[in-house]
């Protein structure tokens, strides 16, 4: 079974970093296929904690080839800083390759991201302000600069000049803020280009060659299903396609070459940023989950909103990504709760529905319908197998499995690599 996609089923932060790192021990290649440094993937290796934003979560395994796919948007200066941080921590990054077709995030994208958010006022999206949306806008507008453009200084200078001229007009005349210094931006790009040059490649060729010889590939989704620009809670979404189908476009592989899709399901739901969230909790249980789950954004430090597991979203995620297997994460966070609720349906205008609505205003009117299951007292962080888990935790997992109609293959009971229970062969 040579290729597996890891995709988040909710609004992100389902623990994709830890699980990708865990699976990378067996994988030959790990590929990011969308997004940029809006992602924040946390990996714990022994006492050390690594926070990755661009670089795939396989990087801690020295033999694993780590690729940044063409579907990503990359801030070259920030990427170099992340590479330096890993080097400082003694991590080997020789196996890092960056697609020559990935688009660049430039200083004006970051500026515009912040300015657009301020202009939206109370209707803001709650973006990470890393310039993700504006960089994808330039890609679609066909004026974007790509990683390959870093390889030719003269062409880079000319393309950058055209872009800065237009962006400075926008900044000065529309937003009434100072424009950017073209020479300063160019110099920083030239410096970053020198560092990135040995890592730049046609990553689609590397991926397809690896698949040809039966190598094992993990495609690491960033953000998640409900942040997908097509399938998510639009407009409160990111600007790319985290769903499994995004792999084909964002990595340059055909759909026939993807073998399995692993959906990551947090034992409860969380969300950063704005927009409706039907099972959101505001009470003492919310504080307890937030504290135990350390639910504060890896990229922005913002406290995350938390709520009960939402089965309507889970079924939606199964459909749009074709989930084959589930991995339940952060199960340990629910220990100690007397009762655990799971949303099985929504009540909308007096009727029960399990359909996930297209409009956020409709979602905002959906009332969750819950099934209540008994909680458990026993800490699960040291459980090594299915049999070690408390009966009520098993009951909760079986309930999720039935509701989703997808078998559970893995359970994560803590941040450490060893705190992972595998109940089905993921790569089979
Ligand atoms: P952007 O991706 O920075 O444009 O932000 C769009 C929305 O996606 C905002 O609600 C962000 O909070 C959310 N978002 C972006 N990246 C992540 C992530 O990695 N985890 C969780 N939420 C994210």
Written overview of the protein:
This protein is α/β, with parallel strands linked by helices and 428 residues long. Helices cover 32% and strands 20% of the residues. It is built from twelve helices and 20 strands. The protein has a ten-stranded mixed sheet, sandwiched between helices. Strands 14, 16, 17 and 18 form a four-stranded mixed sheet that branches. β16 and β17 form a beta hairpin. α3 packs across α4. The longest helix has 22 residues. The termini are close together. The mean pLDDT is 96. The structure holds inosinic acid. Inosinic acid (IMP) binds next to α4.
Q: Kindly estimate the percentage of residues that lie in beta strands according to DSSP.
A: 15-25%
Low-confidence stretches: none
Q: Say how many strands there are.
A: 20
What structural class do the secondary elements suggest? alpha/beta
Helix tally equals: 12
What is the radius of gyration computed over CA atoms, rounded to a whole number of angstroms? 22 Å
- What proportion of the residues is helical, as a percent range? 25-40%
What are the distinct ligands in this entry? inosinic acid
**What about the largest sheet?**
10 strands, mixed
| CA(first)-CA(last) distance | 6 Å
Enumerate the strands of the largest sheet in spatial order, edge to edge or round the barrel.
Answer: 9-7-5-2-10-1-11-15-19-20
Query: Average pLDDT across residues?
Result: 96
Taken from the alpha-carbon principal axes, the silhouette is globular
């Amino acid at each position: 079974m040579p290729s597996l996609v890891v995709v988040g089923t909710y609004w992100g932060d389902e623990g994709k970093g830890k699980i990708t790192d865990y699976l990378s021990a067996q994988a030959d290649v790990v590929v990011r296929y969308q997004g940029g440094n809006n992602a924040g993937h946390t990996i714990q290796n022994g006492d050390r904690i690594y926070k990755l934003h661009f670089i795939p979560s396989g990087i801690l395994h020295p033999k694993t080839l780590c690729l940044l796919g063409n579907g990503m948007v990359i801030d070259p200066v920030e990427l170099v800083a992340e590479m330096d941080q890993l080097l400082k921590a003694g991590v080997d990054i020789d196996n890092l390759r960056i697609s020559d077709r990935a688009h660049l995030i430039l200083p004006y994208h970051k500026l515009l991201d912040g300015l657009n958010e301020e202009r939206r006022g109370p209707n803001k999206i709650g973006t990470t302000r890393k310039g993700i949306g504006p960089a994808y806008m330039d890609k679609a507008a066909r004026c974007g600069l790509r990683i390959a453009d870093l390889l030719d200084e003269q062409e880079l200078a000319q393309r950058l000049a055209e872009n800065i001229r237009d962006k400075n007009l926008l900044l000065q005349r529309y937003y009434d803020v100072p424009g950017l210094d073209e020479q300063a931006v160019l110099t920083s790009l030239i410096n970053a280009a020198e560092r990135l040059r040995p890592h730049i490649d046609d990553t689609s060729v590397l991926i397809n060659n690896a698949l040809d010889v039966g190598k094992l590939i993990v495609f690491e989704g960033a953000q998640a299903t409900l942040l997908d620009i097509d399938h998510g809670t639009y407009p409160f979404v990111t600007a790319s396609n985290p769903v499994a189908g995004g792999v084909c476009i964002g990595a340059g592989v055909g759909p026939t070459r993807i073998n399995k899709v692993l959906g990551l399901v947090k034992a409860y739901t969380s969300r950063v940023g704005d927009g409706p969230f039907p099972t959101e909790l505001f009470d003492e249980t919310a504080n307890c989950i937030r504290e135990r789950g350390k639910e504060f954004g890896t990229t922005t430090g913002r406290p995350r909103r938390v709520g009960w597991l939402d089965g309507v979203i889970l079924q939606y995620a199964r459909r749009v990504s074709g989930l084959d297997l589930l991995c339940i994460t952060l199960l340990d966070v629910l220990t100690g709760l007397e009762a655990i609720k799971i949303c099985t349906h929504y009540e909308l205008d007096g009727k029960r529905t399990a359909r996930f609505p297209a409009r956020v205003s409709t979602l905002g009117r959906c009332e969750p319908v819950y099934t209540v299951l008994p909680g458990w007292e026993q800490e699960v962080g040291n459980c090594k197998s299915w049999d070690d888990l408390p009966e009520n935790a098993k009951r909760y997992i079986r309930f999720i499995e039935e509701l989703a109609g997808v078998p559970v293959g893995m359970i994560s009971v803590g941040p450490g690599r060893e705190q992972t229970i595998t109940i089905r062969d993921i790569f089979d």
